[in-house]
Amino acid sequence: MSEPINRCPIQLTENGQLRHFLTTEGLPKELLTEILDTADSFVDMSAQQVKKVPLLRGKTVVNLFFEASTRTLSTFELAAKRLSADVLNLNISTSSTKKGETLKDTLMTMRAMHSDMFVVRHSDSGAAHFIAEQVTPDVAVINAGDGRHAHPTQAMLDMLTIRRHKGQFEGLKVAIVGDILHSRVARSQIHALRILGAEEIRVIAPQTLLPRHIESLGARVYTDMNSGLRDVDVVMMLRLQKERMDSALLPSESEFYKLYGLTRDKLAFAKPDAIVMHPGPINRGVEIESAVADGERSVILDQVTNGIAVRMAVMSMAMSGQLAEKNRAQPDIDNLNL
Amino acid sequence: MSEPINRCPIQLTENGQLRHFLTTEGLPKELLTEILDTADSFVDMSAQQVKKVPLLRGKTVVNLFFEASTRTLSTFELAAKRLSADVLNLNISTSSTKKGETLKDTLMTMRAMHSDMFVVRHSDSGAAHFIAEQVTPDVAVINAGDGRHAHPTQAMLDMLTIRRHKGQFEGLKVAIVGDILHSRVARSQIHALRILGAEEIRVIAPQTLLPRHIESLGARVYTDMNSGLRDVDVVMMLRLQKERMDSALLPSESEFYKLYGLTRDKLAFAKPDAIVMHPGPINRGVEIESAVADGERSVILDQVTNGIAVRMAVMSMAMSGQLAEKNRAQPDIDNLNL
Amino acid sequence: MSEPINRCPIQLTENGQLRHFLTTEGLPKELLTEILDTADSFVDMSAQQVKKVPLLRGKTVVNLFFEASTRTLSTFELAAKRLSADVLNLNISTSSTKKGETLKDTLMTMRAMHSDMFVVRHSDSGAAHFIAEQVTPDVAVINAGDGRHAHPTQAMLDMLTIRRHKGQFEGLKVAIVGDILHSRVARSQIHALRILGAEEIRVIAPQTLLPRHIESLGARVYTDMNSGLRDVDVVMMLRLQKERMDSALLPSESEFYKLYGLTRDKLAFAKPDAIVMHPGPINRGVEIESAVADGERSVILDQVTNGIAVRMAVMSMAMSGQLAEKNRAQPDIDNLNL
Predict the structure, then answer these.
(1) What would the pLDDT profile of A243-271 be if each residue is shown by its tens digit?
(2) How far is B261 from chain A (nearest CA, A)?
(3) Which of A13, A253, B203, C292 has the most CB atoms at less than 10 Å from its CB?
(4) What average pLDDT does range C190-201 have in this prediction?
(5) Cross-strand bridge partners of residue C140
């Protein structure tokens, strides 16, 4: 499990172009770098007066959210609109899909409406992958978070933020702190950091919030915060998923904050120029001290800005890949038309 | 009641152009054929890279849904966006309109915002017609389903699907199966099929789910499924409206499925090349066997694709008619400006 | 408090351009007149076939509604779309912002997404002003109603309606009738009328629905409806905010209607050509008699039409001001680029 091979071949075309974006796991370094380079150009554009490009003009992007997430939905909606796509938001509670229509029927229906891209959020691990298998070859699928499995656009916006602040990944020590066990973000971050060449990836959490075999992903485990933060270049805090945590796993928020909350005292163990990241929304006084969240080492708002750019990059690249594949799949038909 | 005369003159201009689309009943064959021809061109377009035309650019389409229907709303929203309209979705529960504001006030307010088109969904039969009377001449009204009365765009997408598969209506035997009593779709289908010249229209349902005098619409009644399906070219299944059915009318879902569910065995009575239709969402194992729904005679997903095209056709035609009428209504004013 | 000085300097640029629109209080007469002139041109445009201008193309407008208001949201959404902006609607219940994220974090996040404009609706007085302070200089803020404080776009659409019917404000007697105490609209109307030069502003309400010191705003107080309406040119009815009223303040709706409902009998005291206004939605038989609301002196639907135009005017002017200020703030950066 330690070799970065393509563990999700469905997300690439035969030529290695992005086709779906389901997980960072196993993607080639060149592809992740291409995402970051493309996103960089969109960051620059979003400071322009007209923040719009016609890359997805006439395309239909459907946000299929089986799990509510206003913030993630907003970033994808904005990204799609800035690419000039037509956007349809569908909040599909799991209960309503059970009532009469199967998930597959819903997907086939949306596909039959000539949708070009599904942005999928689902509480089940593997849902985005399942959907990509169902809808190929007409639709490109972007994973906006599936269960505990992956949240690849969040991971890539984090990578973009690191690269814009640190220049490169080589030589970096990065600590991921918090509820690793329930975090789809942490998994995606670890894969991306390894592929991009970070020197050392550490996870810091209480024993009860660590998944088994986490070391096999290539991360060093710390249960003591101060030791884990020593000399790191980047501190990536996770959001405490209160609603997902069993009370038996954690005594109290104040206890968690005391041991794993990022305070100025604990941050002093990191390098003097270490940056502090958090995916938001922030639970102030639970995961992080306000003075740190709002301090000069915080790059939390950069993450938000970069989030739009990364989503625009992934959407435009996946659309290109999907079109390239579709054209390859129908050469005879095209020739007949000549 | 057997003569196909225009029973809803409000929906045509003096010159016979479509102006509102409220019911298929009594419309001229030429007009229904024009809708199908226009929709055909949009089906072709939706396979293009850029699925957008500027026919409704700068126009405001308001989806006035007094009854929730995510699927129907989505198709109209997409159709309007692909015509380049600005779209406003208003989910107006009946209760909220009762709270302080009358329906008429709501309509006059939306009209005063210079809306150009209302897409109306309402649980009361006749609601779309009432609204069209109120808002004329500024606004075109499209009926997206009103009570048990009509669902004309659904009927026309069904007609488009039949024509694309069978080439013409002449000589066709068509069976409509299920809860005829509560179905606005069945009424609109029967009217459209008669006008377009289908040879024989059959309705198949238990006695308790048949409206009185259904024969007067021009349909032959069968209570036995196998007899009704014998030699038909088209099988149109209806959706079982569970929430609308009184328990006394029907013993159980399994009983219904046994007698009227479309299985491979029953389908064998139809012609070998008969097509199978369903408006969706499908209740598998209640109205239809999965092997039939997903089988080679099923054209259910074609119906979805055709649904966008038919809505684009009806919206663009009604907008043309409304503009033509408005120009005719103000010739003196225009002349004064010369 | 009787001098019309700029009580909210944040809403103007150094050069006196509109930059945010938070309150009508203290704005220069020239600026209010510019809003009306600009809105006038948009009223004319909205009768055109293509009701769209590219003034906000590539800009992102976020409707931040902390308090639900379908009608106000719709007018701002339509106005933004007709200016060609990309629009994001966020319904943020107060409870959800309490759950984990502070208001400031929400704002900073939306700002980091490179939003250009926030349209803010909030139940707390002063919320829009607070938000404008937080997000300057990247974002322009439009107040869509904050607590009992202000609802300036409603006031300005009322001013536009008066000017289009009466030609000017000089010499006009205007009566504002109803629940003055809880009305943000009344405050904004009184300020705007004074600034624009109305001759006499009257408020008519029961003693229990009058704020203390209302005279200091420049209004004459009447508790008797007939006396208050005598010889007025304009009658502005307020909406009865049932949910905000303490039962002790008012015995019953029928009692209120008897004393302060606008009937034909009471309207007879006003000038023969007096116009009747109401912000909607109307409570027929509570605030106003149907024969008056639908009568020839009613300009209620004109208010709706003018509401879109005023919002387009304010949005485009604030965007110009915000861009001018941003350019002034970065001259050195721009020069470095030469």
Answers:
(1) 665 566 666 888 889 999 999 999 999 99
(2) 15
(3) B203
(4) 97
(5) C117
User: Which residues of chain B does CATH 3.40.50.1370 include?
Assistant: 9-150+304-327, 152-299
- For chains B and C, count residue pairs whose Cβ atoms are closer than 8 Å: 59
Residues 6+ apart with CB under 8 A from C241: C179, C182, C183
Residue B98 has pLDDT above 60, yes or no: no
Q: Where in chain C is the domain with CATH 3.40.50.1370?
A: 9-150+305-327, 152-302
Say which of C88, C111, C114 has its CB closest to residue A74.
C88
Neighbours of B, requiring at least 3 CB pairs below 8 Å, are A, C
At residue A187 the predicted structure's pLDDT band, cuts being 50, 70 and 90, is very high
| Residue in chain B nearest C287 by alpha carbon | B100
Is B71 an 8 Å CB contact of chain A? yes
CATH architecture of the domain with range A9-149+304-325: 3-Layer(aba) Sandwich (3.40)
- Residue B111, φ and ψ in degrees, nearest 5: -65, -40
SS3 content of chain A, % helix, strand, coil (to 5): 45, 15, 40
The pLDDT mean for chain A works out to 89
Helical residues (DSSP H) of A203-263, grouped into ranges = 225-229, 253-260
A54/B contact by beta carbon, under 8 A? no
Contact A51 C57 (CB under 8 A): no
Question: Could B58 and C50 be called an inter-chain contact, meaning their C-beta atoms sit closer than 8 Å?
Answer: yes
The string of pLDDT tens digits covering residues C1-45 is 344 445 568 999 989 999 999 999 999 999 999 999 999 999 988
Residues in C touching A84 (Cβ below 8 Å): none
Between chains, do A47 and C114 touch, taking CB under 8 Å as contact? yes
Q: β-strand B117-122 against B220-222: which pairing, if any? A: unpaired
Query: For residue B241, is pLDDT > 90?
Result: no
Residues A152-299, CATH architecture: 3-Layer(aba) Sandwich (3.40)
B70·A57 Cβ contact <8 A? no
CATH architecture assigned to C9-150+305-327: 3-Layer(aba) Sandwich (3.40)
Domain range B9-150+304-327, its CATH number among 1.50.10.20, 3.40.50.1370, 3.30.460.10, 3.20.19.10: 3.40.50.1370
Fold of C152-302: Rossmann fold (3.40.50)
Q: Model confidence over C232-249: pLDDT tens digits?
A: 999 999 998 766 665 666
**Quick check: pTM over 0.90?**
yes
Chain C interface includes B326 (CB < 8 A): no
In percent, how much of chain A has pLDDT > 90? 70
Residue C305 is assigned to a ligand binding site: no
Q: What is the pLDDT of residue C254?
A: 85
Give the integer Cα–Cα distance in Å for A207 and A219: 15
Task: Give the residues across from B175 on adjacent strands.
Answer: B202, B235
Q: Which value does ipTM take for this structure?
A: 0.89
Q: Answer whether A264 touches B (CB < 8 Å).
A: no
Q: For chain C, what is the mean pLDDT?
A: 89
Confidence category of residue A46, pLDDT binned at 50, 70, 90: confident
CB C51 to CB B57 under 8 A? no
| Nearest of C193, C188, C203 to residue C168 by alpha carbon | C193
Residue in chain C nearest A283 by alpha carbon: C100
Neighbours of C, requiring at least 3 CB pairs below 8 Å, are A, B
Nearest by CB: B113 against C52, C78, C283: C78
Residue B100 has what pLDDT? Answer: 56
Cβ neighbours of residue A81 closer than 8 Å, sequence gap 6 or more: A52, A87, C60, C86
Handedness of CA A155, A160, A161, A166 (dihedral sign): positive
B301 touches A at CB < 8 Å: yes
Please list the residue range(s) of chain A that carry CATH number 3.40.50.1370: 9-149+304-325, 152-299
